[in-house]
Amino acid sequence: MSFTDKAKNKAQELSGVAKERIGDATDNERLRAEGATEQSTARARRSGEQAGRDVKDAFNK
Predict the structure, then answer these.
(1) Mind listing the pLDDT tens digit for each residue in 15-25?
(2) What is the pLDDT of residues 19-61, one digit of tens each?
(3) What is the pTM for the complete model shown?
(4) CA dist., res. 11 & res. 5, Å (int)
């Protein structure tokens, strides 16, 4: 995964955090859920990236 992809994932995660907090502050359930979904998506991508690196490293040993 390139630096650009990592930066996009981090930006999406931070955007999700912001949306979730704004949703909490304004008692907006839709915004809170949307923020949680964005965070989960970004974290899943990061986990997938890590798993790919682990598999690659296992074959290189």
Answers:
(1) 999 999 999 99
(2) 999 999 999 999 999 999 999 999 998 888 777 777 777 787 7
(3) 0.75
(4) 10
Residue with tokens 């690659």: 56
14 Cβ partners below 8 Å, 6+ apart? none
Q: Determine the Cα–Cα distance for residues 34 and 49; give it in Å rounded to an integer.
A: 23
Report in angstroms the alpha-carbon separations of 43 from 12, 22, 27, 28, 37.
9, 20, 25, 23, 10
Cα-Cα-Cα-Cα torsion 20, 22, 28, 34, nearest 10 degrees, comes to -30
